[in-house]
Amino acid sequence: AEIRLTHGLQRSLNIQSLLEFFCREIAEIVPCDSVAYQHSEYRIAHVHGKTQPHVCQYQLELEGQHLGELVCTRAKPFGDLDLLTIESLAGTLVYPLRNALLYQQALDLALQDPLTSIGNRKALDQTLARETNLVARHGHDLSMLMIDIDLFKGINDGFGHAAGDQALRHVTQMISSVIRQSDQVFRYGGEEFVVLLSNTDVVNANDLAERIRKAIEQTEISYGNYRFRLTVSIGVAAYNHAQGKDSFFSKADKALYSAKNNGRNRVIAA
Question: ω into residue 53 within 30 of 0, thus cis?
């Protein structure tokens, strides 16, 4: 069984496939009612089976690097032989797991904007495809905020590009501090950001956009000896499955354009 497990773990660098295979196998070999893995830094959590009262936990490490936590549960207590078996099987996981985490890290970096550390345009495309598929299956609401920093060129020209970078990071922090954990923010390009709001209709999206606008307007940015304030214009749109993704973007973009043309520092919903 251990040889089969070792061979199986070499087959994939995909972290979810790896965990699915390992948790399923260990549950059968020991046996366990549930096997769970989590890594808070990578925001990975995988559970196989139904949790029971008797628990054994293992902190997974390799060469001083923390690789996450393995938790096994079952209805009856674990014996010494069970614990030794789990420990031995966990030992077969650490090298493939480290490789899969490194691969995941490389994928994450490819989807990350290096300046702000939020998702980039490629990440937005992937997330939007996933979210619209979920809407098609379950029929829940999905809304978008398209956010643009007003008169951003003036910051670059007046204070320099490093101040502009500071402004972009500041806006990212302000947006992230207002949105919910389930919402996702991306840097769309230049001084433009997109927020995807799952399970949110256009009225609630508009309220959230207004809170973001106020939060940014009311805070001051410090850069060296400079102090300056920013405002943003925000376009809001709700997804319509019959009209598709292109229409979703187009509606948000037109609403943003309208906000810019009507004096900036405002929220307009499509």
Answer: no
Q: Which residues are catalytic?
A: 191
Per DSSP, what are the bridge partners of residue 70? 37, 58
Domain boundaries, the chain: 2-110, 121-269
In order along its 270 residues, the chain shows pLDDT tens digits of: 778 898 999 999 999 999 999 999 999 999 999 999 999 988 899 999 999 999 999 999 999 999 999 999 999 999 999 999 999 999 999 999 999 999 998 888 899 999 999 999 999 999 999 999 999 999 999 999 999 999 999 999 999 999 999 999 999 999 999 999 899 999 999 999 999 999 999 999 999 999 999 999 999 998 888 899 999 999 999 999 889 999 999 999 999 999 999 999 999 999
Q: Are 234 and 212 in contact (CB under 8 A)?
A: yes
Q: Is residue 181 helix, strand or coil?
A: coil
Beta strands 54-62 and 65-74 are antiparallel
Which residue from 208, 212, 256 is spatially nearest to 234, judged by alpha carbons?
256
Angle at 164 between CA 160 and CA 168, to 5 degrees: 170
Three-state DSSP at 116 gives coil
Nearest CA among 217, 231, 213 for reference residue 155? 231
CA–CA dist 34, 212 (Å, integer): 42
CATH number of 121-269: 3.30.70.270
Q: Do domains 2-110 and 121-269 have the same CATH topology?
A: no
Burial state string for 201-210 with b = 16 or more CB within 10 A and e = fewer than 16: ebeebbebbe
For the domain spanning 2-110, the CATH number is 3.30.450.40
225 three-class SS = coil
**Structure tokens, 149:** 């920093």
